[in-house]
Amino acid sequence: MIFVSEIVLTIDGKKVMAGAGETVLAAARRAGIGIPTLCEHGDLPPFGGCRMCVVEIDEVRGYPTSCTTPAAAGMVVRTDTPALRELRQMVLEMVLSGHPNSCLVCQDREACERHRPRPTKSGRATRCGACSNRSGCAVRGLSLAGGERLLNLSTIYSAAKVERHEPFIDRDHNLCILCARCWRACEQIQGRPVISILHRGAEARVGAAFDMSWQEAGCTYCGACVDLCPTGTLTDRFARWFDVSGPDVATACALCGHGCRLRATSADGKLVSTRMSRFTREERICAAGRFAYAQLLNDPNRLVRPELRMDGELTPVEWEEAIAAIAGDLAAYRGALAVVTSALDTRENIHAYARFAEAMGGRLVRVSGADDAQLAEWRAGIGQGTVKAAIVAGNLLDEADASALQYLLLIDCLPSAVGRAAAAVLPAAVLGETGSTFVRADGQPASIHKVAQPPGEARAECEILAALAKAMGIELPAVPEGNLQASSAAWDQPAVPPAHDPRGDAAHTPSRFRGHLLADSAPNLRRLGLPSSADRRAPLIAGFEVLAREEVVPNFHRLVLRAPTVAQFAKPGQFAIVMAGETSERVPFTLVDWDAAAGTITLIVEEVGRASRELAELQAGDFVAHVAGPLGSPLPVRNYGTVALAGGCYGIAAIYPLAKALKAAGNRVIGVIEGCSAHMLYFEDELSGACDQLVLVTKDGSRGIKGGVQDVLPKLVLPPSAVDRGGAGVDLLVAIGCTFMMEMVAGKTRSLGVPLQVALNPIMVDGTGMCGACRVSVGGQTRFACVDGPLFDGHAVDFAELSARRAGFRNAELTALAHDHGEEMLPVVQG
């Protein structure tokens, strides 16, 4: 870099040049000298709030922040001294006192993260292992790089600080470090800050004035606050559990005529997130470009296979069969064909459709919706018999027009009423699933780069039309791909500009793509007033009444249901399969307690996905659709002697019925329960009454013994033959918790000669042994957890296989997560 006016200063003994007005931090970074920061960002003005970038400067008192201190000629700066390291450690310790940090001090952290390379899909971030921003958290990065902490400040956690009622964005204020990046970006991009830092001290948090909702305060949902947050306090509800740590790609949005520049991030071939190109007012984007773009491409209802109408029904076929059949059918409609595309289609698609229509003696119609005025002329042609067939690239016709045609081919990405009337449906790759160009409303071309793989067998429309033309003996001119110079050709006419600029008013966010309602793919757009079709989710059917639901600790909910038959026959160690709604996932939950006389059962539901979230949001008086049980083989209850029960996470509650039954059978029962921190321990009163001894273990040492249950058990689980029979030996050990915990327990106790039972939690569907989904390997044999278990010999389980199979449907689970908090559950239908 060449400066007009050069300043020479010394940083850590190295001569460094800086420009007029450049800060010490900027000069140091350009010279390759690292200074830690939390609140600084290149697109934002300096703030100096986090105090991590402090330095020592000769003849300057105290420790100035390098991000706000201008470089000066002759300045002598030191960035890494014992005093600075101690000061930064103290600042970081204070930051961590309000930030869940148990994983950072856990001795098993590295092994746990190798076992679980992606964090658990929790509702609230109670530790790094349950935080969606684990890989990108600036606080975590500085903590791990800084070594041991100097202070022992207790960690403050409040479940009340988690807010999930706004469109698109989850807010977990327990993670906030008050770096002010979010409201500085809001002020810079919107011209006035919708959000700022409210209140003081422990109550300080990011919010809108007078505690209004962000929507009421005028938030346009550009997403800059989410994208600039260094800790995961603000997260994109859709993208948060995908791996967004990879590089992003420059592309453009084609949801409206503005054609805004975007940066797109993909994971495993899927587009998972988009954001503005730079965090400036000129580069701002609307809610659809930021939050709906990825949801549209990942809509689970995407068309994925060619279909031909056979005997009145659309039937999936291979591409070759579809192309041959369509080519044969279209041949009869030369001179009577119309091709209908969106006015916002790409140059390549419009060129291909225009040339195909010309070769067929037909015409191209570019429309923006089913009621577009451009349809009027050829609508009249349908009635006059001059238009008998159509190729439609979207939900761009009304049902009357579609039904009036003798032949209709739909090339599209989503199902629609047009598809229901079509003779053939071909799945199209759209937006960032194919490289293309787009002419914006201002006449300037923009590049749409390929950032995702098309779903299933979907293909680019240019490729589809080329195959059709070849099959029909039509020669199409080459598509001008890569030619970014706009021309006067029909396919290069500018896109229709929106009536209102959606970037300044969320209520004017684009509502359709190719005629499809965006709110059907991105449900939270409904919260902005955008239209949607009839809700595609099935209503809940009145079945099993919810008598009580409470969150006992963050992410863990006690659910009491009326299920008389299950309660009558339940035994310790068994489980029930629960479905919140008629179309919900079937999920197994351990029976934690039951009352045969009252006809009730109690479950602990850990919120880790869509099905558990649906249950976690129920209230007393609601209903769940189905409860099947009791299932599984119960633990044989007899007098073993001394039994140790180890529980972690949901396993804390799961060992409770075992403890009661084993103690009633005359056993001495030792309970050991584990939480990442003190605020994650629960069921202590219940277990204290059911156990002769209860040992508390926390990963961060905030309560009880520091470590995991596997660290405590070897001291308790000495084989009876090796100790005095005064009660030190254990005759049976049962461990219930996450796969990692049970594997660690098995590894630590394998050589002790004490029987170990673990409750396995594989993917389960029917719970009767018929589907085979819950198969596990125990002692080299295939067993089924639902009928042979869930309790198995822990020293014989193949934990590596179990972990791999549990992760097999991760991407499908992420796509299925609900993204419209507060609207998941519909009114109950009596039935």
Give a description of the structure.
It is a single chain. Among the domains are: 162-237, 2-Layer Sandwich (Alpha-Beta Plaits); 307-440 and 453-492, Rossmann fold. It contains 23 helices and 40 strands. By secondary structure, it is an alpha/beta fold. Strand 15, helix 9 (347-359) and strand 16 form a beta-alpha-beta unit. 24% of the residues lie in helices and 22% in strands.
Which helices and strands, and how do they pair?
Blueprint: E1 6-11, E2 14-19, H1 24-30, E3 56-57, E4 76-78, H2 82-96, H3 109-115, H4 138-145, E5 162-163, E6 169-172, H5 181-190, E7 195-198, E8 205-208, H6 224-228, E9 234-236, E10 248-252, E11 261-267, E12 270-276, H7 287-297, E13 307-310, E14 313-316, H8 319-330, E15 337-342, H9 347-359, E16 363-367, H10 375-384, E17 389-392, H11 399-404, E18 407-412, H12 417-421, E19 424-427, E20 436-439, E21 445-448, H13 461-472, E22 512-513, E23 516-517, H14 518-521, E24 544-553, E25 556-562, H15 564-569, E26 575-579, E27 587-590, E28 593-595, E29 600-606, H16 610-616, E30 623-624, E31 626-631, E32 642-648, H17 651-664, E33 668-675, H18 684-690, E34 693-698, E35 705-706, H19 709-716, E36 732-736, H20 739-749, E37 756-759, E38 775-778, E39 781-784, H21 785-788, E40 791-793, H22 799-806, H23 810-816
Parallel strand pairs: 1-4, 15-16, 15-17, 17-18, 18-19, 32-33, 32-36, 33-34, 34-35, 36-37
Antiparallel strand pairs: 1-2, 3-4, 5-6, 6-9, 7-8, 10-11, 11-12, 13-14, 13-19, 20-21, 22-23, 24-25, 24-30, 25-29, 26-27, 26-31, 28-29, 37-40, 38-39
Short description:
This protein is of the alpha/beta class.
